[in-house]
Amino acid sequence: AQGRDSVRVALRAVDLPVQAWCEEVHLHARLGQDIQERFDAVPQQSASAISATVARIESAARDCVAPSASAHPFGSTVNGFGELSSDLDVLLAVDNDELSYYMSYVSWDGKERKHRDAEHRQGGWKNGRWEPFPQVVQVSDKTAMACAVRQLQEHLPEVGFRLVRALPHARRPLVTVEDEAGELGECDVSINNRLPLCNSELLRSYSLVSSKLRPLVLLVKMWAKN
Predict the structure, then answer these.
(1) d(CA 82, CA 2)
(2) How far apart are CA 174 and CA 168, in angstroms?
(3) Residue 88 has pLDDT above 50, yes or no
(4) What is this structure's pTM?
(5) Greater confidence, 60 or 43?
C-alpha cells in the first residue's frame, strides 16, 4: 500500500508542460487550412477511365468465365480517397452454382486435352494401365474460383491487359494485370469477394460527410508511406 501511495504522489508531482503545448497549438492554428489547401486538389482517377477498364474486364469474364459475370470496382479508386497512382481493384461477381457449372466444363476440357496428349504419345496407356476418357464432374467452389482465375489469366491479355501474376490457389484467388490499352495502371481482379464492396461504399459515405476528411486521409497515407 505504501508503494502505491508513493507512486500516486510521484504522478501528482509530474510537471506537465501544458502551457508549452498550448503555445504550439496556437502556432499551428492554420494547420487544418494548410492540409485542405495542399491535399484537396490531389487528382483522382477519372470515372470514365475506370468504367472503360471495368467494362473490358467484364466483357472478357462473360466470354471465358460465365455469361452473367459482372465486374464492380472497389477500393481507393472509387471510395474518394484515391490518387492518380492508385491501383484499381475489381470484384468479379458470379452466382456460385453458375460458376461451378461452367468451370466444371473448363476443368474437364483441361483433363481431356491432357488425355489426348497422353493418348497421342503413349497410345492411351499410363503406367502400364489403360487410361479411361475423363468424365465431366462438378467441381467445388474453391476449384471453380481457381479455374476462373486461370481463365482470366489466359483471356484478359486479349482485351489489352498484360499479365503480372495469377494466384489461383490463394485464400482469395485473384489475377493482377496491367492495363495497357487504357489509362489505368495495375488492376487486381478477384472472384466473389463481396465484403470490400461494402467497405468501399462505407468509406465513400464518410468522404461525402465533410470536405475536410479526404485531405486529412491523404496526408496520413503520405506520412505512412514515408
Answers:
(1) 56
(2) 6
(3) yes
(4) 0.74
(5) 60
**In the chain, how long is the greatest CA-to-CA distance?**
92
Q: Are 179 and 161 in contact (CB under 8 A)?
A: yes
What pLDDT is stored for residue 14 in this prediction? 52
* Cell numbers standing for residue 59: 466483357
Q: Element (H or E) spanning 79, and its range?
A: none
Return the C-alpha cell found at 86: 492508385
Exposed, middle or buried: residue 117 (CB in 10 Å: 0-12, 13-18, 19+)?
exposed
Q: Which residue has the cell 472509387?
A: 78
The CA-based angle 94-100-102, given to 5 degrees, is 85
CA-based R_g, the chain, Å: 27
Instruction: State the Cα–Cα distance between residues 147 and 103, nearest whole angstrom.
Output: 6
Pairs from 31-40 (Cβ < 8 Å, separation ≥ 24): 32/212, 35/212, 35/215, 35/216, 35/219, 36/211, 36/212, 36/215, 38/215, 38/219, 39/214, 39/215, 39/216, 39/218, 39/219, 40/211, 40/214, 40/215
Cβ–Cβ under 8 Å, residues 191 and 185: no
